[in-house]
Amino acid sequence: MIGWLRHQKHAFTAALHRLRAQPVASLLTALAMGVAISLPSGLFLALGNLERLAGDLPAQPEISVFLEAGASTAQKHVIAERLKQADIAAAHYVPKDDALAALSTAQDLADIAAGLTHNPLPDAWVVRPQTTSREELVRVADNLGKLPGVAETHLDSQWADRLQAALAIGRTGVWLLAGLFAIALIAISGNAIRAQVLTRRDEILVSRLIGATDRYIRRPFLYLGALQGLLGGLAAGGVLAIAGEILRGPVERLAGLYGSVFHLLPPTPIEIVVVLGLTALFGWLGAWLSVTRALRQVEAAR
Amino acid sequence: MISFSQVTKRYPGGHEALSGINLAIEKGELVFLTGHSGAGKSTLLKLIAAIERPTSGVVSVSSQNVGRLPLRAIPYLRRNIGLIFQDHKLLFDRNVIENVLLPLDIAGFDRRESLKRARAVIDKVGLLKREKASPISLSGGEQQRLCIARALVSRPALLLADEPTGNLDAGYAADIMAMFSEFHQVGTTLVNATHDDRAIAALGGRTLRLDHGKVMEGSA
């Protein structure tokens, strides 16, 4: 165990030396990795902010309950009582006169409303159920539709469904991109490590002759790959921080134009740790693939 | 400790470096391999250290058939062998002491103990004042002494030397041979390919003369 720890310490120190020995090459590799990581990470952050924005909107589906023109006061009372039950989160009554008034103020419908000789609109309730599941919403709407005095119900969840579907596509897209860029990261790390292995060919051959295992030879390269991945993750953090600062002003101005106050949120500490851990892991993986292949080539060329 | 049974080594292209060799070297024995260039001395040493595999026959070291040793087991065999190469095989991006520390780092030795051992052996080969020097700044003889220091630092049970004093002046060659003698006296097995008749005469031991891949004679 102590010998194993000594080997780890020795390999880590050797990796740090190798990183310091070629500062420009190490920096360029880290930057290439950083740019590769910043795109999916940036999209992930953008999606998170978009979901937050969508969450602020009344994305909750609503049911419009239209009453019959001749609904009695008793029937209206039964309906109002039913809407106080636990499966209903909120409900508000819209008298037909209020509905016509709202129609008259609507920009595109004002002329139509002005041409009406009588109010054709029914009294209505706008109901927000507790549930968001499509099946449950249909069940609640059917149930309300069977109440005496109710002419028809209209379930209005389509736009919310569309928004959620778009966000789901966005999430899937981000994961696909993240997968592709993870492969790019492994390739960048592998290439950098391969060059290192080839420049250290003599050292590898001599080390083998005096008893070094492939694991011993591989270890400093693995640490080097992980360190480069970590540096790439930090570079991506820098790229995103700069991009965030550049976008902050325009986004807040746009939100202001819609009468909203919206601030771009930075990644959480957990997200930062996860991204750094993953970039280190991909750097390590790229190094492992590269050094294992290169060791075989060195052995074959001996 | 070492035995060769009907060992033949043929290189790609058909050159037969060793032809049906049979020999045995006991633990703690001192053996000189002599013979002209291309007689098969280096090949014989490479077979013992599993750097090459025999084309046929059995090479056995410490009861292990090294010709059939799995690749992963070879490093552990080599950690018990001190190798002194004709072309030194030094690392020029490391200084003298770092070159000597390499076998101890590989074996996972404690750093303080490693430094103590490394300095002691560097002192023995007369390079202590140059421990921070790059091997590239050393003369051929100094590089050979550095190679010897690296082979001796892990106190191997078996020392294989390929022309270890070939590049040294008489004084240093005698010192190195005295060092080999010390190791031999504490039980280290030594197989030394050499043309140095003075060393052979001074140290005694057994001589095996190789000629065109065959053992021609042996003397004690």
Averaged pLDDT of chain B: 88
Radius of gyration of chain A: 32 Å
What proportion of the residues of chain A is helical, as a percent range? Answer: over 70%
Give the largest interface pair and sizes. Answer: A-B, 19 and 23 residues
Q: Helix proportion of residues of chain B, in percent? A: 25-40%
Report Rg of chain B: 17 Å
Please state the overall shape of chain B, judged from the principal axes of the Cα atoms: globular
What would you call the shape of chain A?
elongated
Element-level helix/strand string of chain B = EEEHEEHEHHHEHEHEE
Number of helices of chain B: 7
- What is the beta-strand fraction of chain B? 25-35%
**Main sheet: strand order of chain A:** 2-3-1-4
Number of strands of chain B: 10
* Annotated CATH architecture of chain B: 3-Layer(aba) Sandwich
Architecture blueprint of SSEs:
The complex is a heterodimer of chains A (302) and B (220).
Chain A: H1 2-21, H2 23-56, E1 62-67, H3 73-82, E2 88-94, H4 96-105, H5 110-114, E3 124-129, H6 134-145, E4 150-156, H7 158-199, H8 201-209, H9 214-257, H10 269-301
Antiparallel strand pairs in A: 1-3, 1-4, 2-3
Helix pairs in contact in A: 1-9, 2-7, 2-9, 7-9, 7-10, 9-10
Chain B: E1 2-10, E2 16-25, E3 30-34, H1 41-48, E4 56-61, E5 64-65, H2 74-78, E6 81-84, H3 96-107, H4 111-124, H5 140-152, E7 158-162, H6 170-185, E8 189-193, H7 197-203, E9 206-211, E10 214-219
Parallel strand pairs in B: 3-8, 3-9, 6-7, 7-8
Antiparallel strand pairs in B: 1-2, 1-4, 4-5, 9-10
Keywords:
heterodimer, A: 302 residues, alpha+beta, Alpha-Beta Plaits, 2 domains, four-stranded antiparallel β-sheet, 10 helices, 4 strands, 9% strand, B: 220 residues, alpha/beta, Rossmann fold, six-stranded mixed β-sheet, 7 helices, 10 strands, 26% strand
